[in-house]
Amino acid sequence: MTEPGRSRWRAAVRRISLRERREAIVAVLSHWNRHQAVRIVGAMLAAWLLGSTGIHLAERGNNPAFNTWTESFYSVWVMLFSGLDTPPGTTAGRLLSMIVLGAGVGLAGLFTGTVASILVERQLRRSDVANFEMDDHLVLCNWGPRGLAWIREVHSKIIQNKRPVVIIHDETEQILLPDKQDDPAFNDVYIVKGDTTNEVVLRRARVPGAHSVVILTDDRQGTYADGKTILTCIAIRDICRGGGQPNIAVECQNPNNHHRLLKAGADEVISSDELGLRLLARTALYHGMTRVYQELLTVGRDANEMYLFPVPEELVGRDFVEVSSMFLRHRDGKRSCLLIGLQRGEEMILNPIGTEAGPIEADDQLILLSRVFLAGTQALPTVPPITPTRPSD
Q1: Which residues contact 162 (CB under 8 A, 6 or more apart)?
Q2: Are 391 and 343 in contact, with CB atoms under 8 Å apart?
Q3: Which domains, and CATH codes, for the chain?
Q4: Which is higher by pLDDT, 44 or 390?
């Protein structure tokens, strides 16, 4: 090989070697970062043991603080975290003390920074959904004190298949969530910062693929809160155009805006003030009714709730009384339920009288009172049992 060829070969070897060393250093640092807290503790112990050994060998016989191994280990430990107590008398001891002091300051600062970064990273993992491919989740638009209670309800222990919750709010510092160690209901909760009327923000929260979107009243808007809710509904409808749209349930401040919210794209409109007023009226006329409604609205292990269930093909064309008796005869477990009505399009038929409901139609939904949610893949608790031929909505 000629001399120019050897030079090129050596240069190539050096470049490869340099690249390998760089990759090795990056790999080591990456591995360090993954286990940084443990590594820092290990480095502290190494500095303590090596420093104690070196200073003891250099100072024994000249300094009472380092005469014995016990005294040396104690003195160097104090030196690492609080500074010199008894200065060394030899040159070697002083040099080693300087190294130990520098290592102590650096490791203490690095440990503090690592703990802080772990806490920040933990919060970011909870908060940032920009890199997640979510689907069939729950989206909560706007934030307020009611948000905590809402999350606890949708993540109640009785709920078997808990859906992730994504919160959209423009002032994320207001969202103070309990730690998941203290309250498991907040184990799968994420936050997207931004305006709920912004289509880009809604796409970041994966709204088109969500199971449901709940829009709370933004109390900061005052009397214009329903206006922001309407704009949010329109934005959701626009980004979901041409595809499936999640169910949109909105909180209404002014009951007079009910029809406007529906026109904007809301599927369900809830007015807290209106519902509260009606409940007060009912309890004034019939004492104790608040406990009944509270039972129906509470998600609990033994609480009864109402569910909508698609009509299986085997029940299409049958009479309401016949189907009700099929449910009524099954009383063998917690899956037992009562048929109390039908949802037919926009019409809700509760406790139908005579032939008011007529034959059950294919597009009807059964309104069932039950302690547990009925899975669409299981046989209905009827006598005889009915196995649905299509999945529930």
Answers
A1: 154, 155, 188
A2: no
A3: 35-127 (1.10.287.70), 138-270 (3.40.50.720), 304-393 (3.30.70.1450)
A4: 44
